[in-house]
Amino acid sequence: MPAAPDFAARVYAVVARVPPGRVTTYGRVARAIGDPRGARMVGWALASVVPGSDIPCHRVVNRVGLLSGGWHFGHPDVMRDLLVGEDVPFADEYRVDLDACVWDPWEDDDSAEGPPRDAGVVLDAM
DNA sequence: GCCTTGACGGCAA
DNA sequence: GTTGCCGCCAAGG
């Protein structure tokens, strides 16, 4: 069994909570689950689930809003079309305007913008 | 059993 | 201000 199935589960939980028209970054998700250094693991988890699941992985972009994983969809254009279809503003052809649509897991709860001390943030939201 | 790459991020020079 | 490097954990070759 995987070394950290719970890790991927948290990633899916956070990404699944991303509202339409909004996008999140790997660093934000990693930070929300309590692993600020697990940004890479977040991508690994999403790559393992692939589209078809209930995980809107197309709403997850890197820290600069670039569609890093666009090629995993077959072509960034596919991912871009999905985001555009949700009214997600784009700063560039393959770069979303994080300044306008960035979303934080802890931001979903009113003004609970407190820094994610640990994974309890997401677990508590569940 | 070993090393390299990988959907990233943060820090240093 | 910009560019480069290292670090994290896991999976694939």
TrEMBL record:
Listed GO biological process terms: DNA repair; methylation
Swiss-Prot/TrEMBL catalytic activity: a 4-O-methyl-thymidine in DNA + L-cysteinyl-[protein] = a thymidine in DNA + S-methyl-L-cysteinyl-[protein]; a 6-O-methyl-2'-deoxyguanosine in DNA + L-cysteinyl-[protein] = S-methyl-L-cysteinyl-[protein] + a 2'-deoxyguanosine in DNA
Keyword Transport recorded: no
Pfam family, one: DNA_binding_1
GO MF assignments: methylated-DNA-[protein]-cysteine S-methyltransferase activity
Domain Methylated-DNA-[protein]-cysteine S-methyltransferase DNA binding: 6-87
UniProt cross-references to Gene3D superfamilies, sorted A to Z: Winged helix-like DNA-binding domain superfamily/Winged helix DNA-binding domain
Keywords: DNA damage, DNA repair, Methyltransferase, Transferase
InterPro entries in the cross-refs: ATL_DNA_repair (IPR052520), MethylDNA_cys_MeTrfase_AS (IPR001497), MethylDNA_cys_MeTrfase_DNA-bd (IPR014048), MethylDNA_cys_MeTrfase_DNAb (IPR036217), WH-like_DNA-bd_sf (IPR036388)
Positions of region (Disordered): 106-126
Descriptive protein name: Methylated-DNA-[protein]-cysteine S-methyltransferase
Lineage: Bacteria, Pseudomonadati, Thermomicrobiota, Thermomicrobia, Thermomicrobiales
